[in-house]
Amino acid sequence: MNSRAPHSPARRRAAWGAVQVGRAAAVAVGVALAALLLVRLLPGDAVDSRPGGNEGTPIPPRAAAEARAALGLDRPFPAQAIAWAGKAARGDLGYSLADGRPVTRRIAERIPATLLLQGAALSLALGLAVPLGTLLAWRAGSRVDRAARVVLLACFALPGFWVAVLLQGWFAVRWGWLPMQGMSTAAGAGPAGGGVGLDVARHLLLPAVCLALPQIAYVARFARAAVLEVLGDETVRTARAKGLSNGAVLRRHALSQALAPLLTLTGMALPALVGGSILIESIFSWPGLGRLFHDAVQQRDYPVIQALMLLAGGATVAGNLLANRLSTALDPRTADPPR
Amino acid sequence: MIAARWRTLRGGLALLAALWSLALLAPLLPHAPAAVDLATGLAAPSPRHWLGTDPLGRDLLARVAHGARASLVVGLLATLLALALGVPLGAWAGYRGGSADAVVSFLADVTLAFPALLLALAVVAVSGARGILPLAAVLALSRWARIARLTRGEFRRLRGREAAAAARAAGARDLRIVSRHLLPEALAPILVGAAFAAAAAVLVEASLGFLGLGVAPPQTSWGSLLAEARLAGPQAWWLALFPGLAIFAALLAYTLIAEGILERLDPRRQSAGVSA
Amino acid sequence: MPPSPVAGPVDGGTVFAPLTTDPTTLNWVRASDTPAAQIGRLVGDSLVDHGPDLRYLPRLAERWEISADQRVITFHLRPGVTWHDGTPFTASDVVFSYRWATDPGNGAARFAAYFSEVEAVEALTPLSVRVRYRTPFAPALQGWEALLLLPAHRYREAAPGTDPQERSPIGTGPFRLERWRQGEEIVLTANPRYWRGRPHLDSVVLRIVPDNRTAAGALAAGELTLATLPQSDPPPAAAASPDGRIRYKRFATLAIWFIAWNGDGSNPFFADRRVRRAMTLALDREGFRRSVLHGLGQPATSTFVPGTWAYDPSLVPLPYDPAGSARLLDEAGWTDSEGDGVRDRAGRRFEFTLTAFQGNPIAGQIAQVLQEALAHEGVRMRIETLDWPAFVSKLRSRRYQAQISTWLLDVDPDPYDNWHSSQIATGNNVTAYADAEVDRYCEAGRATFDLAARAAAYREVQARLHRDQPMTFLFHPEWVVGVDARLRGFRVPLSGPWRWFPGPLTWWLTTARDPLPLDAQG
């Protein structure tokens, strides 16, 4: 049977891949509509009911009219949706009601900070949890394993923002070992020496740890399960039967195959970019997307809320698709459509 | 061995029961949660106030106990709502497949695309929902989709099973097949999902309360108690410790229950936990 | 240990100060938020300013004359002043600023009130401006103290519809704007050509620090030079920290905390004076001030601030009297006729909503204390917390029943905007208070420049406000500022450390830590 026959495995896989992409696109459209709808469902006119800004600074009439037009509050919903989509495709997401600047600019300046924080937390989590999970899988059933799993379970249930409040209270406010907020100190004002990098690192430590804690537990358990699954696998058993040492088995087969689900996990980190660190960023005044969202909610800054929801939804869809494609590439067995 | 398998589940249930009794017995406590006593503001734990007082002199134990009512009730309601919506939709999608599946999956995917806290914050900001029922509804918005997806998966898996095929061959109606034959099989995983959903609901509710968007005074919730603690500063360590401990206990209880059921189902099916 | 000899001011150094939030705009005329005002006072200049005793002092206007009929003020401008870009400052800038501020399309609402009585503003010569008022208007100078001037030439060159002062303003002030990093900091550097001489400091960096506790922590860590301590913390017992690095100063501000009762008849409760007095008697304001605020803050009897020339010290705040409160409510007809624990009258239960700003924890605490106190008296109060825009809008449009808020008060104590009945519809009379005698006294106080006569009129106003309790006047907030011991020349008048001129102009830094308490400084 040549590979161009209608029901060959390759054809099937390609078709399934196309279906996945198509589905993702449909969901993306749904996400955009949902974000739009949310703002539209407000009681009353969003722009009218707010004088805007801090302590009663009125929105200048020009910005108010622009905001209303940008939110499409003066048009029927379908026309509004199309207009908004067109603008969004061009990168124009409207103007923030809080300070009148383009929404895209406000979002863009916050992305690096969030990337830094989430990246640090993820690195911390992966760096600690993967070896831990692997070790536990290797020693599955032992007392150490059981005890560690209890601890991990507790960590998993730990509310991140509680830990943040406690740690900030002790380490920053009470004892002053670490900075309390922000991403960096004004040049020359902080403890001397070390430069910008060290300064940012000191500010990064507490928020990254608080963000990483529940992730460590999650990833460790995930890694443990994945490695366990693989250890019971055919190829590994064969390798063992062939007389390969434990270490070699572990390295060569188990890890590489457990890598796939872990990469899936990393793909899932994308959606967390917008919504995953709202609380931590607020507590530590970290100038990232999470804090931007929180501020926008406090200020009822609807264009920003809408744009961030779109971004979050889009990131999830992209992340899922990416995870799917990655795992397909790494382990072709998952490329087959479900029966 | 069997005893060990039950231990997790029992532990979780016991912890949950303890928290619920605290909530239910709250009115019996010697102090009222809103009783202001300006003279004894910020008092450390003592025989008179077991967990100390807040800046307005209100007893912390009473506030945590009453806060339990809001947090636990909202969590429970949200989970029930999510189940009521998610299980039927997921079952229908999983069993029927085809267009039903496409529609439900699409709706679920769109809902799940938004991180839970983000969605809850946006909806609360836009709608101004502050009461227990509206909040529960908001929390259920995210939860239903996960439950639905879980249920769908289970029903798809069970659809091809022998018993179902036999029943269908015998001419039984769909609803009967679903409720009599498939549901009991799928029950355990759904309960696991429900337990994780309850944990997530409590966490999101606490987060909303922490950000000042939860229930309104005089009603308290653990999240808003933590926010008050943060304002009062780290000297009043009791203010931050006990409400947080309560949230932790609730999350732990639900997680233990979920893990317990999972263990019971299949000891090797140790998942990392359905993501909250 | 004897204090080390304090050398004269030296130039150089940077002061790091906190800002609670990013200003919405740096156009200091349009903005009315505190951060914009702080920056405006450093980068911009006004014609007139006030000294530590709140009397007016010359600034960009060297001197001014008030005509015999008290209707014309002629300002003579200081020669040789230039904008930060080198363009000379002239009278046309003054005229332009006035026109821009009073143009409703620009959204600078408060200047409409300040300049409501102005008939004409014209430049007589490049260095003199004549302002003609419709009637003798005593608070006239307040407007010229509040109006920080805009550079006319910049607006002429700017594209239509844009505001060149929005993000990167220039002024004639002691500092110029160097950099604004949103969400992080605003950097101001010294203006070497300032007409009063270069500031001692090289730069002032305003860092965005969202709450006072964080700022206090940063001060302790040496990241900030000064910071206001959180109101809910106990004030430090000593004038300096144990290691001598930080000195503390307690200061009052021109502000008032209040609970406004909407008396416009839209609710059946607060149009009755007895009910309003009952509300005040029910709240233990003094207890709250002493315990939660640790004694910071001064009891208030009205919107006139203790220590100012118009304040009447003979008025005593209403006591905390729950029994008296209950009696007044009975008198007003609110009794528990149904026996359900809630007072009612003519079939309507006494349930109302108090609106608070969600970002203000002190307000929330006061609200909860009041809620509890009223619950004991059979009045059910609901607390509604709103975000800032909704909160301000609700107060201004009078859609509230009761609202707890704070006002910053002007240097001039003119009560017209807040208490005259003509200001109910469009002005700042948010409680819909209308009393014919108070109206007369407000008008009288405005019509003469004679301070004694004004003070007498305002004493009458205060007495009536105290009697009628259109608001429950809570207190005038006091703060404790922590200042790095290396900062010299720091003084805090009644208007706060930032509103006062010259303020930061005369601050200077030294390497040695000065053990002298702040009060003992010259």
Could you please describe the fold and organization of this structure?
The complex is a heterotrimer of chains A (339), B (276) and C (522). Chain A is built from 13 helices and no strands. By secondary structure, chain A is mostly helical. By secondary structure, chain B is an all-alpha fold. Chain B has one domain (59-275): MetI-like (MetI-like fold, Orthogonal Bundle). Chain B contains nine helices and no strands. In chain B, helix 3 (98-113) crosses helix 5 and helix 5 runs antiparallel to helix 7. Chain B is elongated, with a radius of gyration of 21 Å. In chain C, 27% of the residues lie in helices and 23% in strands. Chain C has 15 helices and 23 strands. In chain C, the strands form seven sheets. In chain C, strands 14-20-13-19-17-18 form a six-stranded mixed β-sheet. A four-stranded mixed β-sheet of chain C has the order 1-10-9-8, covered by helices on one side. The interface between A and B is large, with 53 and 48 residues.
Overall pLDDT confidence of chain C: 86
User: How many strand units of chain C?
Assistant: 23
> Which of globular, elongated, flat, extended, rod-shaped describes the shape of chain A?
flat
Low-confidence spans of chain A: 48-59, 186-193
CATH superfamily of chain A: MetI-like
- Biggest interface pair, residues each? A-B, 53 and 48 residues
Decide which structural class fits the backbone of chain C: alpha+beta
Count of helices of chain A? Answer: 13
**What ranges of chain C have pLDDT less than 50 throughout 5 or more consecutive residues?**
1-5
Beta strand % of chain C: 15-25%
Helix content of chain C: 25-40%
Straight-line distance between termini of chain A: 22 Å
What is the strand tally of chain A?
Answer: 0
The mean pLDDT of chain A is 73
Percent in strands of chain A:
under 5%
Number of helices of chain C: 15
Largest sheet of chain A: none
Oligomer: heterotrimer
Helix content of chain A: over 70%
Query: How much is the radius of gyration of chain A in Å?
Result: 25 Å
Q: What separation lies between the terminal Cα atoms of chain C?
A: 20 Å
